[in-house]
């Protein structure tokens, strides 16, 4: 008990001495041992690394999880060392709602079919988002957290010890200056030598840790490349999913609007031809795509599923011009590759899928998707 009291008194004396030295330095009444310029640069670089790492970490967490309540929940689970429960992404939740709505509206209706298609794509987008968040957390967020909670805490601890050693050293220097008697000077010089040794040793330890910041930058650079790779793969997947969905929706769109810009002479019934026009004054006149008539004895290559562009001839009733909205890469030799904003000639064939037209550009000819075109009068 007596030893503990003495140690407590000694620690209190050291603390009081350091506080006095620090206060006098701030007031300009005491000298301060300055660190060399290289050491000061290392300190500034370490502080800069810590500050920007914290900002990048926090903003990346916001990017991956915009919901602040969810971030707080994940933080608590992490501090409690418990596994974070799996959370449904917004895309997966939207997919669930669309699928349930399609079942209520009727999965066989045009709207129901489209809801199912879009819902499936949203589910795939949600799964891709989940995988991106998992990958980014492992490859990018975890190394940043490890630096802040591991290396930086060690650096901060050693810097505090170095600060205390410096205060002790300067206090010893001040006592040596105030010493008058020879014995007091000798004791002060001995204490100064010991304190200087401890300060130099601690300064070397802290310097080594600060120089390790360069290795931290190299590690974070590698993690940043992995984060960009994960983000690239995620957006590439999303882009491909949406392209696939756009092609799938072309069929539904063609069924809905085929009567507007695709004419088929074989599908017109006598009753429909004899019926009078309804609300002709209110409906805009929309020209139709000329249709190649079916000739008896000539095989219908489109109906058989095989199109030979060399055998297709423009209809006698004429053709239409169309502007290409997006680039399109031909899937096979029967299709025509398209470039955005170019003008081509188009027409339809009997029995042909309403989502497709025959396109001509100079001597080139092939099938083109309707959804990629803007039909001109």
Automatic annotation (TrEMBL):
Pfam families assigned to the protein according to its UniProt record, in alphabetical order: BAR, SH3_9
Localization (cell): Cytoplasm
Domain (SH3) ranges: 317-377
Domain of life from the UniProt record: Eukaryota
UniProt cross-references to InterPro entries, sorted A to Z: AH/BAR_dom_sf, BAR_dom, Endophilin_B2_SH3, Endophilin_SH3RF, SH3-like_dom_sf, SH3_domain
Cellular component aspect of the GO annotation: cytoplasm; membrane
Keyword tags: Coiled coil, Cytoplasm, SH3 domain
PROSITE patterns linked to this entry: BAR (PS51021), SH3 (PS50002)
Entry's Gene Ontology BP terms: membrane organization
BAR domain residues: 24-258
Assembly and interaction partners: Homodimer, and heterodimer with SH3GLB1.
Family: Belongs to the endophilin family.
Name this polypeptide is given: Endophilin-B2
Organism: Junco hyemalis (Dark-eyed junco)
């Amino acid at each position: 008990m007596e030893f503990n009291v003495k140690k407590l008194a000694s620690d209190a004396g050291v603390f009081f001495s350091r506080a006095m030295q620090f206060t006098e330095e701030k007031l300009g009444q005491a000298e301060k041992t300055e660190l060399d310029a290289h050491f000061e640069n290392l300190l500034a670089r370490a502080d800069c690394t810590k500050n920007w790492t914290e900002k990048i970490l926090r903003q990346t967490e916001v990017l991956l999880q915009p919901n602040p309540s969810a971030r707080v929940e994940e933080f608590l689970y992490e501090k409690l060392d418990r596994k974070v429960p799996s959370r449904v992404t917004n895309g997966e939740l939207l997919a669930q709602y669309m699928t349930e709505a399609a079942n209520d509206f009727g999965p066989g209706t045009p709207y129901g079919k489209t809801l199912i298609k879009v819902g499936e794509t949203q589910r795939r987008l949600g799964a891709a988002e989940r995988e991106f968040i998992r990958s980014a957390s492992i490859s990018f967020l975890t190394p940043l957290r490890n630096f802040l909670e591991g290396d930086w805490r060690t650096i901060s601890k050693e810097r505090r010890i170095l600060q205390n050693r410096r205060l002790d050293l300067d206090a010893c220097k001040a006592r040596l200056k105030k010493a008058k008697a020879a014995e007091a000077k000798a004791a002060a010089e001995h204490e100064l030598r010991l304190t200087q040794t401890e300060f130099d040793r601690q300064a070397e330890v802290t310097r080594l840790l600060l120089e390790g910041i360069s290795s931290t930058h190299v590690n974070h650079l590698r993690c940043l490349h992995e984060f960009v790779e994960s983000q690239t793969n995620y957006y590439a997947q999303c882009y491909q999913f949406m392209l696939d969905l756009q092609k799938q929706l072309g069929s539904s769109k063609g069924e809905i609007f085929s009567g507007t810009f695709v004419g088929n002479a074989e599908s017109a019934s006598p009753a429909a031809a004899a019926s009078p026009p309804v609300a002709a004054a209110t409906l805009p006149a929309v020209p139709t795509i000329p249709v190649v008539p079916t000739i008896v004895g000539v095989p219908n290559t489109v109906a058989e599923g095989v199109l030979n562009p060399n055998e297709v001839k423009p209809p006698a009733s004429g053709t239409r011009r169309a502007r290409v909205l997006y680039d399109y890469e031909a899937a096979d030799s029967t299709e025509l590759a398209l470039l955005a904003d170019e003008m081509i000639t188009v027409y339809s064939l009997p029995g042909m899928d309403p989502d497709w037209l025959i396109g001509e550009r100079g001597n080139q000819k092939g099938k083109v998707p309707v959804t990629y075109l803007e039909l001109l009068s």
